[in-house]
Amino acid sequence: MSRVLVGALVSGGAFALAALVSGGTANASCMSFSGIGNGGGCTSTAGTFAIGIGEGATASAINGSTSHAFAMGTNASASTDGTRDTAIAIGDGAVAMAGAAGDRTGDNDTAVAIGPAAQAIAVFGSDSKATAVGENVSAIASGNQDNATVVGKNSRVRLVVGDNNSGTVIGDNNYAQSVDGDGNKVTVIGKNNGRAGLLSQITVSGGDNNAVTVIGEDNQIIAAGAGISGKTENDNNRVTVIGKGNENTWAVGGDNNTTTVVGDYNQVATQNGNNNTATAVGRVNIAIVGQGDDNTATINGDLNLVTVGGGKHNTVNVRGDSNTARTLFGENNSARVVGNRNVAIAGPGDNNHVTIKGDDQTSQQPGPESARVAKATAKPAAKPDKGAAKPKPSPKG
């Protein structure tokens, strides 16, 4: 008997769950247990177990009781389908997979995969987990308690759609994601970070407790509560990136935003609303907050340009190098800079303030902008009444 499960579409991108064969011809070792010997590619069920080890290894364990499955090399696979699950697959073509998929039940899941083309997948529900360790890794966990982890080479991790998510990828070409909702969090630690598909990954998204943390190298678009799969409840956002290529960064959409970057080619943002903040510490900066609510943006050094550009309690703050600052539009504005090539600007609109301390300076409070407004709204001088008597010429002397 054979069972094949291939594919699932995830937010506009397809990922192959893998072709999993239970029973069928495989040989070079196998075993089974509560289905006693089943076949040359194992299988089992009732109290279940199944092993594999070698050449076309696969295993399986199928729907119930305390599960397991294990497979070891060459075309390894493993699987299981329900109740306490686990599946481990170790080398060469490794895969693993754990709780059921088609009807979304899964029970306690876990899948681990370890070497060359590892992948792990824990599938559409229950207490999830997946871990995949080296070479062309992946991980994916996909529902309920989630957690997925990859360690290193061509990386990836996804959690997709919902529940208590997490993530973590550690090295090499990374990309990451979470896409849609609930406890979110993704963490990537080092090398080429985002890329490959669905808005170039490292994401989180949709809604709920968001977060993203990336630590080093070529970073890229990054995000947090972005709503890319059609949801708009962005929630508690946060993004932290620490160094190198950074890029558009974000926290996006709405709710309690924060975005922080520490070094290199920065861009930073939050955009569109609620308790904002954005921060950058050094190198090529730009920082942007966007549309509304409690704003702030701060940079410490290098080529700066900060801006807030919407409304509510504004503040901008810069400390050194090629500055420009701003807020413009409205409410309690301010802008402050401490040194180097400065310019500052705070409104049109509401309480303005600007402070600059040293170097090439410029300022504006409303300044030239309000002068233009005043000129445009000034009343023209009254024209003389046509019916009024003209003064008589004085007699010639």
Polypeptide structure, described:
- This protein has 1 helix and 11 strands.
- 3% of the residues lie in helices and 12% in strands.
- The protein has a domain at 21-154.
- The chain has 397 residues and is mainly beta.
- Mean pLDDT is 71; it is low at 1-26, 227-231, 369-379 and 388-397.
H/E series:
EEEEEEEEEEEH
* Computed structural class: mainly beta
Largest sheet: 9 strands, parallel
Side-by-side strand order of the widest sheet: 3-4-5-6-7-8-9-10-11
Helix content: under 10%
Rg for CA atoms: 31 Å
Percentage beta strand: 5-15%
Number of separate helices: 1
Low-confidence sequence ranges: 1-26, 227-231, 369-379, 388-397
How many strand units?
A: 11
- The average pLDDT score comes to 71
- The 3D shape can be described as elongated
Alpha-carbon distance between the termini? 131 Å
Task: Please name the defining characteristics of this protein.
single chain; 397 residues; mainly beta; 9-stranded parallel beta sheet; two-stranded antiparallel sheet; 1 helix; 11 strands; 3% helix; 12% strand; elongated; disordered N terminus
